[in-house]
Specification:
With 161 residues, the protein is mostly helical. The chain has one domain. The longest helix is centred in the first third of the chain and has 22 residues. The radius of gyration is 17 Å and the shape is globular. Pfam families: DUF4395.
């Protein structure tokens, strides 16, 4: 008999889902790294802050393109944290958190581009904006990007698949 996860059971039932604790775990790691960018950028270590923001932008791109289930922090959660927890009460649609990764990419990439153009203050400002959103998700389970996704779907600006 093969072991099944809630994701595989949901997918086999025609409704894909993710453990909602995974994106919160990812947001916690991301918020710590973004706070480091803010501290480095404000502290005058502009190059180190920019490099770390480039890495974070790449991670956001990974999540936006491959989806949150294949994001490195999501894989880390599933391998190390989830086996020690009870199964989730319910699964979450992966589209809003994936869209939130796209929003994070836009914010951090804007900081990277402006930072490379010589606007040093853009790096910690972009990191602070992204930190705010990541911290809200990690600490309170409130995903700003997810809410933006739902708002855009309701306004019919984007279609829910």
């Amino acid at each position: 008999m093969s072991a099944t996860t809630p994701e595989s059971r949901a997918a086999s039932a025609g409704r894909p889902g993710i453990d909602p604790r995974g994106p919160r775990f990812s947001a916690a790691i991301t918020s710590v790294l973004l706070l480091a960018v803010v501290v480095l950028g404000v502290g005058g270590l502009d190059v180190a802050a920019l490099v770390l923001l480039v890495i974070l932008a790449a991670l956001f791109a990974w999540g936006a393109i491959a989806g949150v289930a294949r994001h490195p922090f999501g894989l880390l959660y599933r391998a190390l944290v989830r086996p020690r927890l009870a199964p989730p009460a319910e699964l979450e649609d992966p589209r809003p958190p994936t869209f939130a990764q796209l929003v994070g990419l836009v914010v951090t990439a804007t900081g990277v581009v402006l930072g490379m153009l010589g606007v040093a203050a853009a790096v910690p400002i972009a990191a602070a904006a992204a930190f705010f959103a990541a911290f809200l998700n990690a600490a309170f389970g409130y995903c700003l990007g997810c809410q933006l996704y739902l708002l855009l779907v309701r306004a019919r600006v984007i279609r829910a698949a």
